[in-house]
Amino acid sequence: MSLDHLRHLSVIYAEDNDFTRLLYAEMLHSITNDLRLADNGETALSLYQNRPCDLLITDLQMPDVDGLQLCQQLRQQNPDLPVVIVSCHDQSDLLLQTANLGVDGYLLKPIELESLTQILLKSAERLFARRKLEQAALYWSKTFDAIPDLVSILDHEYRVLNMNRAAQQHLGLTLQDAVGQDYCGILHPDGQVPGDCARRRHEEGCCMHATEEPVAMLGGYFSVTVTSICDEKGIDIGRVHVARNVTEKTETEIALRYISTHDQLTGIGNRSWFEAEFNRLISSRCWPVSIIATDLDGLKEVNDTFGHGAGDELIIRAAAVLVASCRGDEKIFRVGGDEFIILLPGINEPEALAIVNRIRNKIAHEEETSPCLSMSLGVAVANIPEQLNETLKRADQRMYQDKMHRKTDRSVTCHNQE
Prior knowledge:
Elements: H1 3-7, E1 10-14, H2 18-29, E2 34-38, H3 41-50, E3 55-59, H4 67-77, E4 83-87, H5 92-98, E5 105-108, H6 113-146, E6 150-155, E7 160-163, H7 165-171, H8 175-178, H9 183-187, H10 198-203, E8 208-210, E9 215-217, E10 220-230, E11 236-245, H11 247-261, H12 271-282, E12 289-296, H13 299-306, H14 308-325, E13 331-334, E14 339-345, H15 349-364, E15 375-382, H16 388-417
Parallel strand pairs: 1-2, 1-3, 3-4, 4-5
Antiparallel strand pairs: 6-7, 6-11, 8-10, 9-10, 10-11, 12-14, 12-15, 13-14
Helix pairs in contact: 3-4, 13-14, 14-15
């Protein structure tokens, strides 16, 4: 630390002796640019109340409020205020009393400039160290609040210790209201904690966890990272929970994924999704696997007679019948213009035939709308992965056999409806 540091310090010098005060004031003016003089302790208190100083220099023996009382009162207001005591040799009893105050330096009269400078530099070291800490804390606070992600400091039981401004604003909570609350309860007030919850991973012994997929919470999607905080002994004492808002990106990805896997006309799975699911079934353990192949009857004639709009409506009606006839885990795909395939993992042949009967019954109970809805269906069952490709071909063949057997009947029925 150099003299330049001292020049910017605000100093109050209290001394009741006019000659001594003016003498040492000349020395102090050469050290600091901000010096205020007090002829007693009461005046020094008044000066401090008007504008606090960075450093106090005081004589011990003064009328009314002496140097010891001055130190005590100012230290009550500012425990970190650097204090230098100026004393005569015969004031040793008062000097002992100042020891409990933790003063930063002592000077015995008469004072030399070099001694005064050195003691002030030493006394100011703690002041500048504290200022650096305060500045670092301010920078940390500003940086913490400038982070756009939701950052929360939690104890080892996931109770809130601190939250940055982004977290407070997004959660609609002040820090005062949030401190001490269970953070999972804040993030998931409906109690629907996601299966990939970072808290569960921590309880399983994982010290750092980032969610593999965005977590649905707070009305959007967030990428979450949770990191352990350890003390100097390596003991886990808390967590840093960081949630990055990826709602816009995730919703775009979901929309693109939906478009890439769903038939735009009917909303059911498309051929790309079928091929992915078919390949996945080969390595699955859900056996047997039944396959229903189905095809719209007379779509070309409908398009030629009524137009492609009517053909599209017929395709939509067919998809709706299939969806209504199956459960949620039974996947339905449109794999061609008028071709559909239903994959039924874990379903045997009698159960698959029951589904076919449900489909036929729903078609039979369709409103008598022209053009009429007619579908050909074929069923085959694979008991092991090696049979899956052959089973798909066999279901397709049986569907065409059904189409040929019913072709004449369909023509008669549609003619009668017209």
